[in-house]
Write a structure and sequence with these properties.
- This is Clavesin-1.
- GO terms for molecular function: phosphatidylinositol bisphosphate binding.
- Pfam families: CRAL_TRIO (PF00650).
- By secondary structure, this protein is an alpha/beta fold.
- The chain has a single domain, classed as 3-Layer(aba) Sandwich (Phosphatidylinositol Transfer Protein Sec14p).
- It contains 16 helices and 11 strands.
- Helix 3 packs across helix 4 and helix 3 packs across helix 5.
Length: 328
Amino acid sequence: MATCNRSLTGPIWKRAKHVQSSLLSKHMLSDVTTLPAVQLGDFLLQIELDDPSESVQEIARRELRETPEVVKHAIEDLKKLLEDDKDLHVPLHSEAWLIRFLRPCKFYPESAHDLIKRYYSFKVKHQSHYEGLTPSKEQNIFNQNILTVLPTRDQFGRRVLVLELGKKWKHNKCSLDEVFKGCVLFLEGAMLEPETQVCGAVVIFDMDGLSMQQVWQFTPPFAKRIVDWLQESIPLRVKGLYIINQPFIFNMVFQVFKPFLQEKLRSRIIFMGKDRELLYKHISPKCLPDNYGGTLTIPPVTGPQWLELLLLCDREFKAINSYGYKKK
C-alpha cells in the first residue's frame, strides 16, 4: 500500500511479483507461495513486506534504538531466552518473527520475552475467541463492512483502522466478539509489515448514529478483554484511538472501559466529535477519504475487498495459530 496519495501502478505490480519469493521466505511462517495482493484499478492492495524506507529507518533508529549492532545482539539474547523457556513453542528460526516483538520493546530482549509471554497467555485465557481464528472462518465481520483499514498510510507512516459502530453496525447480525476477532486478524496482518512495526497504527472509532440498544452490547467483560489486549498483549505500537461523531450516550460506553485504562493508553484516546480540524491535527486530510473531509484520491477499500486479501493469508494465520504455550 502507500502513504497518502502515492498511487501504485502496473510497474510496481510487476516489481512486487519479482521480489515476492525472497520476501515471503523471510517474513512468512507458512509455505504461502504468492504475495497476497488484490488489484483495484490502478491501485494494488497488498500486505507490505518490503524493508522500511530510509525515513522510516531513521524513525526506528531514533525511537526504537534500531541499529545493526543493537538488532544483532537483541536477536541473539531473545533467542537464548526463548530456548531456555521450555513452556513455549515459537518459531525461533524466523528472525523476522523475533523482530516483530523486539521493535515495540525498543530491542530490549527481556521486555520482548515478557511481551511474547503476555501475547500467548492472552490467547490461552481467551481461547474460545482464538481457536482456529482465520479469515475464512470470520467472513461475516468483513462482509458487514463496518471494519476496514484505509488503503494508504497516514503522514506518519501509520496504518489507520476504521470501526463504524454506529448506524452502519447491525448488532443483531454481527456481535462485538466478531468485531474483536476481525480486529485481531487485521492487526496480526499488520504485524507482518516492517513499516507498521516501526510506525505503528491508529484507530478511528466512528460512532455516528450509536443507539441505546448498541450501548448495551458493551459489557464490562468485553471492555476488559479489549483493554487488556491493547495495553498488555499486542506487539504493535498503537499510537492513537480517535473517537469521532460520537453522540452524548457514548459517555455510557466510555464509562464501561474507563476503570481498566492505564494512563498511557488513556492519554492516547481523543474525543473529537464532529471537529474535523482536531482530526486533521492527527491525520492529514490528504490521508483521509472524502466522507471525513479528506482529499484521498484512491477509492475506498471495502470490508469484502479486505476479506479477499486476507483470505489469501489463511494458511499464514493457521501457521501463526500453531505456536504458543505447549499443552500440558
